[in-house]
Automatic annotation (TrEMBL), chain A:
Allows the formation of correctly charged Asn-tRNA(Asn) or Gln-tRNA(Gln) through the transamidation of misacylated Asp-tRNA(Asn) or Glu-tRNA(Gln) in organisms which lack either or both of asparaginyl-tRNA or glutaminyl-tRNA synthetases. The reaction takes place in the presence of glutamine and ATP through an activated phospho-Asp-tRNA(Asn) or phospho-Glu-tRNA(Gln). Belongs to the GatB/GatE family. GatB subfamily. It comes from the Bacteria. Pfam families: GatB_N, GatB_Yqey. GO terms for biological process: glutaminyl-tRNAGln biosynthesis via transamidation; translation. This is Aspartyl/glutamyl-tRNA(Asn/Gln) amidotransferase subunit B. Residues 329-476 form the Asn/Gln amidotransferase domain. HAMAP family: GatB. The keyword Ligase applies. InterPro entries: Asn/Gln-tRNA_amidoTrfase_suB/E (IPR017959), Asn/Gln-tRNA_Trfase_suB/E_cat (IPR006075), Asn/Gln_amidotransferase (IPR018027), Asn/Gln_tRNA_amidoTrase-B-like (IPR003789), GatB (IPR004413), GatB_C_1 (IPR042114), GatB_Yqey_C_2 (IPR023168), Gln-tRNA_amidoTrfase_suB_CS (IPR017958). The gene is gatB. Keywords: ATP-binding, Ligase, Nucleotide-binding, Protein biosynthesis. The keyword Protein biosynthesis applies. Heterotrimer of A, B and C subunits.
Automatic annotation (TrEMBL), chain B:
It catalyses: L-aspartyl-tRNA(Asn) + L-glutamine + ATP + H2O = L-asparaginyl-tRNA(Asn) + L-glutamate + ADP + phosphate + 2 H(+); L-glutamyl-tRNA(Gln) + L-glutamine + ATP + H2O = L-glutaminyl-tRNA(Gln) + L-glutamate + ADP + phosphate + H(+). NCBIfam families: gatC (TIGR00135). Belongs to the GatC family. One of its GO terms (molecular function) is ATP binding. InterPro entries: Asp/Glu-ADT_sf_sub_c, GatC. Keywords: ATP-binding, Ligase, Nucleotide-binding, Protein biosynthesis. Allows the formation of correctly charged Asn-tRNA(Asn) or Gln-tRNA(Gln) through the transamidation of misacylated Asp-tRNA(Asn) or Glu-tRNA(Gln) in organisms which lack either or both of asparaginyl-tRNA or glutaminyl-tRNA synthetases. The reaction takes place in the presence of glutamine and ATP through an activated phospho-Asp-tRNA(Asn) or phospho-Glu-tRNA(Gln). Its EC number is 6.3.5.-. It is an enzyme of class 6 (ligase). One of its GO terms (biological process) is translation. This is Aspartyl/glutamyl-tRNA(Asn/Gln) amidotransferase subunit C. It comes from Pelovirga terrestris.
Length: 480, 95
């Protein structure tokens, strides 16, 4: 009988924080500056320079910990992780080892491909990033230390995920949370949200974990899925052929879609962690925690629930609207001015997001503000304009910034609901299409659509379709 | 002897020290003596004493998240043995 395998995945995510300055010195963290222009004795690792902790980094860690259901440690310490590499000027990385700031958290994930489940978060700790290495055409490697000492949170999950789909669901949720909190810009390509995946397989029913490989270089959600799927298949094949998985780091090659062993340069890891004597212990009082908790924004999961339960939106709408904070804020501002959540949701998910994407602007800078859009929706609901004409009004407002009422008046888009004016159009249409009239009266009732279309066309879209329908029916009946 | 030459060679490797055979022998004896001294400390009864992370009885030294002027690339590279434009240059680390 063929052995069935179970995949086991644990994730380590490095979240780069959006603080203005580095974790232990006042150098700027701005991205894309000229090499080594944002350095000082502390982040260059010059002898005698002393690190001082950035308070905002601690705030960001507490926020993230609370948002992921962690326990915030009242007492935590920094440690030195010792290794040599040219991007690490001090010869050690300041991190947390024993006594990290957050522990024992969890996130609930769900998706179409798996049953809802809770993924444990082992710990979240604060640490400094390393510099950047360039391996260009020259004989040596080049070092830029602008990134050295920028603040990171490392979020370590339990090995609770059983498929790439679960891993992606966890990552997307964590990503949403840190972006919502404003502690991270969430840019995967620029490395602001970096994921390493520990992947192993074991025969179904086996309790102990298989040997894992650590996958790196996963800088998009798509690559993460590809890399995990490839790695699972590789490990199963290897075992089936009588081989053994070795514990190692493997790099994902996005062009080939495969993972490759990082051979050669890697040494045995022996980091000799010890408490950093340059940094005092960190004590976080309950008051501090309460203060941060009170200032937390409503998180995407809470928003989704509220949109469904209080606003009566379908789960799909709630998920789309809550996924990004600026979209949620636009939607909420709109509902505040036009209390018809489903109509608002349709317009935000449809017209607004499409236009924002087409014009490549952020929703926060959308020229059709929630107030202007509320003006359109009001005119749809009082039958001044049809839903179709409303889209024309939307485009016109996008261009001009004028109000819906101004646009409707200027362009003469007011819906014709005056039966006298419509009667004339209807008579014209009936007179111009005698064959269709005969067929309709002979029982071909679906021709009603044709007549309505003709009248709408004659009115240049401005006729009230409901009224046209009613009047046409009456008029045609008179012909029998 | 608790410490062997193999231990010393391993630690020297982590610290990127190249030791001659004579140095290795010499240092093995010295490290063993040092650890013997630490053993003496282990004789103390430390039950119920919280591990010390720092010698100073203080906590929470912070800075505000305010940008302070950096020293600039030229100063940063002033003591570097090798530089290319504004980069430090080191022996190539990957093939």
């Amino acid at each position: 009988m063929k052995t069935r395998y179970e995949t086991v995945i644990g994730l380590e995510v490095h979240v780069q924080l959006t603080t203005a300055t580095k974790i232990f010195c006042g150098c700027s963290t701005a991205f894309g500056q000229s090499p080594n222009s944002q350095t000082c004795p502390v982040c260059l690792g010059l002898p005698g320079a002393l690190p001082v902790l950035n308070r905002e980094v601690v705030n960001a860690a507490i926020k993230t910990g609370l948002a992921t259901n962690c326990r915030i440690a009242p007492y935590s310490i920094f440690a030195r992780k010792n290794y040599f590499y040219p991007d690490l000027p001090k010869g050690y990385q300041i991190s947390q080892f024993e006594l990290p700031i957050c522990e024992h958290g969890w996130l609930d994930i769900s998706g179409e491909e798996f049953d809802p489940k809770r993924v444990g978060i082992t710990r979240i700790h604060m640490e400094e990033d390393a510099g950047k290495l360039l391996h260009g055409a020259s004989a040596g490697s080049l070092v830029d230390l602008n990134r050295a000492c920028t603040p990171l949170l490392e979020v370590v999950s339990e090995p609770d995920m059983r498929s790439a789909a679960e891993a992606i669901a966890y990552l997307k949720q964590l990503h949403q949370i840190v972006v919502y909190l404003g502690v991270c810009d969430g840019n995967l390509e620029e490395g602001s949200f970096r994921c390493d995946a520990n992947v192993s397989v074991r025969p179904v029913g086996q309790v102990e974990l298989g040997t894992r490989a650590e996958l790196k270089n996963l800088n998009s959600f798509r690559f993460i899925k590809q890399a995990i799927d490839f790695e699972v298949e590789r490990q199963i094949e290897l075992i089936e052929e009588g081989g053994k998985v070795v514990q190692e780091t493997r790099l994902f090659d996005p062009d080939a879609g495969v993972t490759r062993s990082m051979r050669g340069k890697e040494q045995a890891h022996d980091y000799r962690y010890f408490p950093d004597p340059d940094l005092l212990p960190l004590e976080v009082s309950q008051d501090w925690i309460d203060e941060v908790r009170a200032a937390l924004p409503e998180l995407p999961g809470q928003k989704r629930q509220r949109y469904e339960e209080d606003l009566g939106l379908p789960a799909y709408d709630a998920a789309v609207l809550a996924a990004e904070r600026p979209v949620a804020e636009y939607f909420e501002a709109l509902v505040a001015q036009h209390n018809h959540p489903k109509l608002c949701s349709n317009w935000v998910m449809g017209e607004v997001l499409a236009a924002v994407k087409e014009h490549d602007v952020t929703i926060a800078s959308c020229p059709v503000t929630p107030a202007l859009l509320a003006g359109i929706l009001k005119r749809i609901e009082d039958n001044t304009i049809s839903g179709k004409i409303a889209k024309t009004v939307f485009s016109a407002i996008w261009q001009s910034g004028k109000s819906a009422d101004e646009v409707i008046a200027e362009k003469g888009l007011k819906q014709v609901s005056d039966s006298g004016a419509l009667d004339a159009l209807i008579d014209e249409v009936i007179a111009a299409n005698p064959t269709e009239v005969t067929e309709y009266l002979g029982g071909k009732e679906k021709l009603m659509g044709f007549f309505v279309g003709q009248v709408m066309k004659a009115s240049k879209g401005k006729a009230n379709p409901g009224l046209v329908n009613k009047l046409l029916k009456e008029r045609l009946q008179q012909k029998t | 002897m608790k410490i062997t030459e193999k231990d010393v060679a391993y630690v020297a490797g982590l610290a990127r020290l190249a030791l001659s055979p004579d140095e290795l022998t010499d240092l093995t004896g010295k490290m063993d003596a040092m650890l013997g001294y630490v053993d003496k400390l282990n004789q103390l009864n430390t039950d119920g004493i919280v591990p010390t992370a720092h010698a100073v009885p203080m906590a929470n030294a912070f800075r505000d998240d305010q940008v302070v002027a950096s020293i600039g690339a030229a100063a940063a590279l002033a003591n570097a043995p090798l530089g290319v434009e504004d980069y430090f240059q080191v022996p190539r680390v990957i093939e």
